[in-house]
Amino acid sequence: MVGIRRVAQHLNLSIGTVSRALNGRPDVNEETRRRVLEAAGALGYAPNQAGRALRRGSTGVVGFMMQTGSEITGDGDTFFMSVFDGVQAVFSRHNLDLVVLLCSSREDPDDYLRRTVARGFADALIISATRREDSRIAYLAERGIPFIALGRSETDAGHPWIDLDFEGLARTGIDRLVAKGHRRIAVSAPADDANLGFVFLDSARTALEGHGLVLPPELVLRSPPNEIGGYQMARQVVAMEERPTAIVLVNETTAIGFYRGLRDAGLEPGRDIAVIGFRESPQAKFLSPPLTCFRIDLHALGEGLAEALLATMPGFQERYPLGTVRRIWPMSLITGESDGIPR
Amino acid sequence: MVGIRRVAQHLNLSIGTVSRALNGRPDVNEETRRRVLEAAGALGYAPNQAGRALRRGSTGVVGFMMQTGSEITGDGDTFFMSVFDGVQAVFSRHNLDLVVLLCSSREDPDDYLRRTVARGFADALIISATRREDSRIAYLAERGIPFIALGRSETDAGHPWIDLDFEGLARTGIDRLVAKGHRRIAVSAPADDANLGFVFLDSARTALEGHGLVLPPELVLRSPPNEIGGYQMARQVVAMEERPTAIVLVNETTAIGFYRGLRDAGLEPGRDIAVIGFRESPQAKFLSPPLTCFRIDLHALGEGLAEALLATMPGFQERYPLGTVRRIWPMSLITGESDGIPR
């Protein structure tokens, strides 16, 4: 297969000029474009579609793939937009544009990614919502496409990732509740195969075992990542014969519904059931009693993602000599009044 | 200038095949690609860069340009993500992908748009944050790029738009406050030249005049669209020698800061200063006293934008025979307890 390098050698032109001519850029004169097209035809040039748009300067665009859908972003999103802001702060130094690839929850993320790569308009990708086994990782790695994952996975292609500290969340939450006298502690988990669910549950089990406690299956509450999911978990807890006295939530929006679900059943969060929430989101700031939860610097997280991605991109890695970043992002506990002692 | 049509005629191939060959799509056999490239060279083909990626099927991507920045989306965004969800619901019927083009507030939106168009990866565009005079509109119209604006503008290129009912917001808010006995009513406005600010202020003035009242310049409070902006407006109000007894806010996030700003000065929203907010956002739902504000079906708004855009796109307009949509999107009043009678 004759590539762009061979065409450039044949014409004694730079690869960049040939690339611009083949890609129809306006900054190539007509005579050069004519020569390039003729030579490309005569030599049997075949573009490497997947690689074509994935080199420095060829698009100047980096895609951030996130999952959407009325279950996930129906009430907006306060997490990713803050991360994007940090990513952009870094990219703006390099004239790179961030575009957000909205993968609907109705669609298979693998299909979506393949289509995106075929469309070839991004130099590099940031993927999120990583699954336990995530074939997107192998797909991108095999094609040599620079990418970073927000979230770990069992699928390891020697790729960079940054993940939130779900172990720390589980350990800090459980330790704190046990210290206050709780023994029957529930945890939430995503309803799907998001890797964070596995990490969080494993860590919660380990933390409980450290105190001689167990996590019975009925105290693992699965829910969609929204207010209604939180409400349903509260109703499940309320209906239990032997209720937990405390819960640690792994999604920020569920806390809001959980509060409402308890109140609708005449229970008071913090007093009747201790609640430790996930992130101190803009909505969570308005909960009463104030939610004990975790603060994450999302802007800095976005900057970290961007820098770690640039460290993998041929045109930038000498300026970001970070190697393959694999980093657990810290979260700091914000003590509220939602996790009192057991009644 | 020889275009793609001439190359296709010369080879007796379809325009689609020639386009795919020139664009390096993998679904063209090598012999065909060779013939196309040779003919393109021999005939002096010059791609129409701006138009190239803006026909049906050529990219399958529609871009939604929104403004970001720590001032705007630093705490997330609950408006646009809900709109995107509606846009995607329509696009998914047609295998179109929505990508979000994040234009940082540090960047000139006109420059950003020109770069995006040059990158040519979208078939059509949705623009937002329309300004009073918005050169993006003429730019896109001149190039025949299908687009729709979320927001009106004085710049009229015969293009489609959908805008929120800022007149209705002003009129309903003012009428309601006047009926409760308020005579000295402040309004908020964006700090920049967003068109919505002009529409809202004009409408507020007209509504006040209808009651024999005026809007003195000191009661037009300008602020960035965030919590801190709302807080600063409250401090301004508190510091006035002759305070307004009521305010109508034109941004959803400012209500939260406005409440805080009043309370920090020992004033109670609803009792000391009546407040009518903009949208019933997820955060606003947690305000106490409950905020009198407006409900907007953002999912439906997204669907409306998508359908109106498809009505302008060559491959879709027969399925969406809507003509040039120019539509004021309704908002319905949600009565809370934040707009009592004057003290």
From TrEMBL, chains A, B:
The yes or no answer to whether the keyword S-adenosyl-L-methionine is present is no
Where does the HTH lacI-type domain lie? Answer: 2-56
Sorted UniProt keywords? DNA-binding, Plasmid, Transcription, Transcription regulation
The record's section on Pfam families has:
LacI, Peripla_BP_3
The protein depicted here goes by the name: HTH-type transcriptional regulator RafR
Taxonomy of the source species: Bacteria, Pseudomonadati, Pseudomonadota, Alphaproteobacteria, Hyphomicrobiales
Q: Which gene encodes it?
A: rafR_3
